[in-house]
Each structure stands twice: as C-alpha cells, then as structure tokens.
Amino acid sequence: MDNPKVSIVIPTHNRSSILLQTLRSVLSQTFSDFECLIIDDHSTDENTRLIAKEFSLKDKRFKAYELPFVKSGANAVRNYGLGLSKGEFINFLDSDDIFSAQKIEMQLNEFDATPALDAVSCRHIAFRETPGDVSEQYKFAPPESWLDVLFFPSNAMGGLWGTPCPLWRKKSLLQIGGWSEQYIVWTDPELNLRALL
C-alpha cells in the first residue's frame, strides 16, 4: 500500500491498557484504504510497543514507529506522523480514543460531495470505561447555530474540537503549519481556530 487514501496517526505513551481497543476500532473501519501510523513516545511500558509491533506484523496497513528524538509531547508526535504520512487525507487518533466503524467512510463521502472542503469533522462521545458510560462533564449543549458549535464553552472541549473528530485534507493541514508544539493543553481548539482563519 504505497499511496493509501487516508493516514491515521496514533501517538501513544504507556497506553497498553487501552491501545488494543483503539487499534481494533481502526481495524474495524468500513473504509479499508488507510495506513495507521502508531508512534510510541518513549514508553516505559514495554507492552505498549509490543501491541503496536504485533498489529504491524499482522496487517501491513499498521506501522509501528518509535519517536526518534527526545520526548516532546503529543503534538510533536502528531507532527512527526504528519511528516511520515502518505495519505491524501489524515486523521489523528489519541491512543485512548476509539473510532465508530463508519467514521472515515462517512467523512470521505462528504469530501466527495464537496471537493473544496479542507476538513470534515464530527461530534464525539466521551465515556469512562465502556461506550455508553458517558460522563456528565462531556454532555454538550445542543448548538443553535454553527457559531454556538465553535464558541460555546460546553462545546469547546468536545463537539467538533476533539482531536479525533476532523478528517483533514493533508495539504490543507500542512498549509497552516500542522500542530503547534508551543502548547500542551487546548491544542485541538487552537489548531481548528487557525484552520478557520
């Protein structure tokens, strides 16, 4: 798979307890022309690297990497993955998140319907241990308009802002400089605001 349509970048650090579930959600995608780059940020937990390596040996779409420079945080790992990626489209998935099975397929359908789009986003559901176990903290206010989606405080940490939500056209993401490595919190809203400007 030299030129997959979609690249999925997963930064990980000591996440062996949930990484397997994350990778299975990628494996279950109804859209199959993807590469999944699992990039370990210097885990001290050997199992995290073993899980990534196991997936890469079983399915050539999965590739396991170790960050080749000093641990620098999730955005440095995301940018490293952006540089490695070969897809026309790119999605970032944190190693404690899971995709619904049709996520990538449905977003690509929107790109097909409107080719001028730079990104297609979706909402997300936060849960504690199992899907459906939704924390009150992450129940979002229903938006009255797109401005509400963008700027309501209850939607700022979720809604369309969450890291795994947007599927990006890679060239558009490169044009805005990728992820800022200057910040360690609120990095996904910062990226999305730059994309809107």
Mean pLDDT: 84
When the domains are counted, the total is 1
Number of separate strands: 6
Q: Sketch the major β-sheet.
A: 6 strands, mixed
CATH superfamily: Spore Coat Polysaccharide Biosynthesis Protein SpsA, Chain A
CATH topology, what is it called?
Spore Coat Polysaccharide Biosynthesis Protein SpsA, Chain A
CA-based gyration radius: 16 Å
N-to-C order of helices and strands: EHEHEHEHEHHEHH
Major beta sheet, strand line-up = 3-2-1-4-6-5
DSSP strand content: 5-15%
**Assembly context of the chains:** single chain
Helix/sheet category:
alpha/beta
* CATH-derived architecture: Alpha-Beta Complex
What does this structure look like?
- The chain is α/β, with parallel strands linked by helices and 197 residues long.
- The protein has one domain (6-124, 159-196): Spore Coat Polysaccharide Biosynthesis Protein SpsA, Chain A, CATH 3.90.550.10.
- 37% of the residues lie in helices and 14% in strands.
- It contains 8 helices and 6 strands.
- It has helices at 16-27, 46-58, 74-84, 103-113, 146-151, 153-156, 170-175, 187-196; strands spanning 6-12, 34-40, 62-66, 89-92, 119-120, 167-169.
- A 6-stranded mixed sheet has the order 3-2-1-4-6-5.
- The longest helix is centred in the first third of the chain and has 13 residues, at 46-58.
- The radius of gyration is 16 Å and the shape is globular.
- It starts with 5 loop residues before the first strand and ends with a helix.
- Pfam families: Glycos_transf_2 (PF00535).
- This is Glycosyltransferase 2-like domain-containing protein.
- Residues 7-133 form the Glycosyltransferase 2-like domain.
